[in-house]
Amino acid sequence: MSRADHMDVAAYALGVLDAQDAERFEEHLATCWACAAELETMVPVVGLLSGIDGEAMAALEQTHTDPALLDRTLVAVRRDRRRTRVRQLLATAAAVVVFGGLSGVAAGMLGGEPAPTPQAGPTQTAPTAAPSGEPGNPNDPGVGGEKPIEGDQHNATDAGTGVQTTMWLARKEYGTQVSVQLSRLPGPRVCRLVVVRKNATSEVISTWSVPAGGYGTNQNQLPLELTASTSAPVRDIDKLQVQSVDANGVASPLVTVDDI
Prior knowledge:
By secondary structure, the chain is an alpha+beta fold. The protein has 2 domains: 3-96, no CATH class; 152-257, Immunoglobulin-like. It has helices spanning 3-13, 19-29, 33-41, 43-48, 54-62, 67-109, and strands at 152-157, 164-172, 175-183, 189-197, 202-210, 224-230, 237-245, 251-257. Strands 1-2-3-6 form a 4-stranded antiparallel beta sheet, with no helix packed on it. Strands 5-4-7-8 form a 4-stranded antiparallel beta sheet, with no helix packed on it. The chain starts with a helix and ends with a strand.
């Protein structure tokens, strides 16, 4: 085979030979170990030059007779190779980032320490009711709000009915403000809050109905919370009593605060 036939290795590798020349080269390749070895070494080069089309290769053939064209072709090839290397570097960097992220997730799933996740701080909300059926204590935020409830606190539990209450009595110009929290109060029923004065007179200052689930019970863990007022000053109050009223209007005590 002629020297020109040997030089067809690069053109064949890049796929720029026409069908007749490619067939002729393949027949030669079957009997020429030198061309076969050279073709094998050109496989990586083909990947780098894959962006150069047939017209560029044809122009390359003309560089044998046109030095200026050779210089322009070499510049174009170098530029294309630089772009290819940059793309390869970017692809490698992206793969490293993705692999690193997946490795962190896998480590967490296999029992490693997970990466700390930023968490929002607790947000305080104004409770509408206490979370349990127990009466409040002096450190509780209060009924229906974040601020401490105004007034002196009094706790009571009725041994017979089991109803529990916490009441706050605040002195006002008009008399006394009474804030009430009730739990372990079963339903359904109608209740009322009665102020008993030291002169033995009484006054109903609030009434309400209790649903079937009650308040502060197993069915409804939220206690009942309400606020009422009386014209009687704190010094004149003997006791405060929550009463249950039946269908006939007969009242029976459920829980009494008498340590005023």
